[in-house]
Amino acid sequence: MKFIHRLSSKSIRFKLIAGFLLFVIPLQLLLIFDNYYAMKVVREQVANSNRHLAALYMDQIDRNLEEIDKYLRTMVAFENDLIVLDRPADVNMDEYFLAKINLFNKLERDIHTYKEMDYLFVYSSVNEELITNQPPEATMAELKMIRQGMIQMLEERNGLQKQAFEKWFPYNLNEEYYIVKIQKIGNVYVGGWVKASKLMIPLSLLDVRPEGKSVLVTETLKPMSGNAPIDNNDDYLQVSTHSKQGKFSLLFLIPYSVILEHLPLLQRLWYLLILGAFIILPIFYIFLRHIILLPINRIVKVMRRVRDGNLEQRVEPYPVSYEFELMNDVFNSMVSEIKALKITVYEEQLLIQKAELKHLQLQINPHFFLNALNTIYNLAQFQNYQLIRDMSEHLINYMRFMFQNNLKFVTLEEEIAHTRNYLQIQALRFEDAFTYRINVDESLSQALIPPLMIQTFAENTIKHAVTMDEPIRLNVDIQLRGDQEPYLCIVIQDTGKGFSEQALSEWQSEDESAHGDSGHIGIWNSRRRLRLIYQDRAKLILSNHPNGGARVEVWLPFMLGDPSEVGKHVSIADR
């Protein structure tokens, strides 16, 4: 709550911070946008440049692979020795060995024409025999491993349709990737075999800087050459182009740090300005806080406490500016004067309030008293001594309750007993023309309410609703309600004609002068008492029931305890 008060739109702290931010934030947003736009332009230019470079080199690779692919197709179409290898060797052993020698010599001779290739091979799946050239730089162990890898690769693809051999494809052998192309005629496979890293040798002449990477990757972006950090791609600009001849791509990775290092020096100055603004803001705020905000905050804290009724609070002396020192002295003097004045006014108000409550409490309708005596007199004429005793007992209890002193609160049990005495007197007086019912939970009997709160509204029903023409019933229901704070809900309802529209309109207007001469002085007194005791915590609701009759709802804060002590407590709270 304190933090919300401090950041109120009307506070000096809020206005200072908001003014500074309204100046700094647009400037920072402009600088950020300018920086973002500059980086975007540089990235796009670098990406386009490297995209063209990758496409150029990939075209060169594709042309070399296409030449080898033409050679393999020509060999399949015109080499008669391949037909011999398509038959089992034991059909004509001499012809088979001669064909092997011819093919071996051809591969050894032609490999020098296609220097991009490591191996050219012919494989007879019928005879399970592989013929390949033997590079002079390869050791016997390497040659053996390559031959085993070729046989394994060809066996894996044995039985595949011709469409599976249309393009060059990557093959992983002992963590080393090779690019392979196969042409098939019958059961004979003719192909080329080259290391993926060998295709990247000419690319080492390109200027991709030491921080940049260039790598051949599979269709799943798995690197086939080099150690490019493809997984950590957030730090790199990726530019790739796909091969038209094979199932692989050429990928360039350029670090963003390299791309952006050539931005103008002015852009770095913008960063310094943004950083400086963020540094200046807290320094500026600390300065204002020490000179202006802290002295104001001390005064505001004391003012809030004084507003809440704590007149003992004073602004403590601190080393502040002359203006604030004068404000503190004047404020402390004002609080002292207000405290003295409020004590005087309160004492006078307390005396007036006690006198008014006592006057309201002891108001007795003379007609009621005379009617009660008249009823006793009539009963004496008929010598109905039992009813005379009952009537006298109810009247004595009624008068004893009315003449008690210092009754600011009574228990609900006492108020109900007093109301029953009053209603029983009226029931004896009107006989069958008036009946009543009081419904209250016994657990609420010790709840405290102002005296005469229920009896006043019951008396209003007797005065305005009961006639000898038709019987009238009065119902009093008392319940405990409320979710967050418990309230006593007292509902007094009769079956008479109810309130007039004019009376309800006057009550809703709450104009006290409109009720001074009306016939509902008791209701006006009750509302006045509720305001004197509870201020705005109690509610009095007047209405007419849809089925006819007046309905009064009284909502009182639920209280328990000694009536005298609670009365003191409420008086102190009213202060």
TrEMBL record:
<dbReference type="InterPro" id="IPR003660">
    <property type="entry name" value="HAMP_dom"/>
</dbReference>
<dbReference type="InterPro" id="IPR036890">
    <property type="entry name" value="HATPase_C_sf"/>
</dbReference>
<keyword id="KW-0597">Phosphoprotein</keyword>
<dbReference type="GO" id="GO:0000155">
    <property type="term" value="F:phosphorelay sensor kinase activity"/>
</dbReference>
<keyword id="KW-1133">Transmembrane helix</keyword>
<dbReference type="Pfam" id="PF06580">
    <property type="entry name" value="His_kinase"/>
</dbReference>
<dbReference type="InterPro" id="IPR050640">
    <property type="entry name" value="Bact_2-comp_sensor_kinase"/>
</dbReference>
<keyword id="KW-0472">Membrane</keyword>
<keyword id="KW-0808">Transferase</keyword>
<keyword id="KW-0812">Transmembrane</keyword>
<feature type="domain" description="HAMP">
    <location>
        <begin position="290"/>
        <end position="343"/>
    </location>
</feature>
<dbReference type="Pfam" id="PF02518">
    <property type="entry name" value="HATPase_c"/>
</dbReference>
<dbReference type="InterPro" id="IPR003594">
    <property type="entry name" value="HATPase_dom"/>
</dbReference>
<protein>
    <submittedName>
        <fullName>Sensor histidine kinase YesM</fullName>
    </submittedName>
</protein>
<keyword id="KW-1003">Cell membrane</keyword>
<dbReference type="Pfam" id="PF00672">
    <property type="entry name" value="HAMP"/>
</dbReference>
<dbReference type="GO" id="GO:0005886">
    <property type="term" value="C:plasma membrane"/>
</dbReference>
<feature type="transmembrane region" description="Helical">
    <location>
        <begin position="12"/>
        <end position="33"/>
    </location>
</feature>
<dbReference type="InterPro" id="IPR010559">
    <property type="entry name" value="Sig_transdc_His_kin_internal"/>
</dbReference>
<keyword id="KW-0418">Kinase</keyword>
<feature type="transmembrane region" description="Helical">
    <location>
        <begin position="269"/>
        <end position="288"/>
    </location>
</feature>
